Please model this.
Amino acid sequence: MLPAVAHWPAGSGGLRDTIRQEIVARQLDEQISGRYPVGQRLRILDAGMGQGTQALRLARAGHTVTGLEADPDLLKAARDSLATEPAGIRERVRLIEGDGRETGVHFLPGSFDVVLCHGVLMYADEPDALLAGLARMLAPGGLLSLVVRNADALAMRPGLAGDWSGALTGFDSDVYTDDHGVKVRADRLDALTATLAGIAAPLHAWYGVRVFTDGVPAEAGLPAAEELERLLAAEDRAGRTEPYRRIAALLHLCGVRG
Model:
């Protein structure tokens, strides 16, 4: 497998973001390849796609991707990135200004084989309604991919940094401050498992993301390629291994539409 620096654009962020994107990509590809024949072109919705990192990666793999993003700056970044792609890839991507609450306005139920909702749920005022709307967009047997902050591990980052007051607060909290200084929600595996069952997209598999590297500074750059591959191998294994995955900073949950 090629080092992550060969997969992600330079603007995708530092070490923490690269680890998140690469590990989620590996996990998502594992779920897709386990559900669909090799070479099948899937209809994919990326709700809250950010700058389009995963959307463009999936389009390069041959899938038809619709990206939904409410932030005009992020949408512009995605469009700028898309403009640099070959014509064949550009033709497979549709970018729409909007958010996950508006799926019913733009699409018919059952329009997609895979729906991504990565790093979005923590900002949602009504997360259950958002997830129910996304699940309705899935065809029968379709895959819903969620990436959320792990509320059961909120004490880890401050604790490992020696911030004992922050660690004690994190044990009983489901709120944290993101890298932009905004207070947002975190989610618990058990609660999301129940929610997915209730919207007819029960949990099929789950992973941890960023077990070892959540505490590195946000501005930290990438190590040399060989060291990065070893780091990714360790994160990849930890994200699918008990008990490590339970203390990951992020959870990646995959539900399947019944």
Notes: The first strand starts at residue 43 and ends at 47. The mean pLDDT is 93. The first helix runs from residue 15 to 35. DSSP finds ten helices and nine strands in the chain.
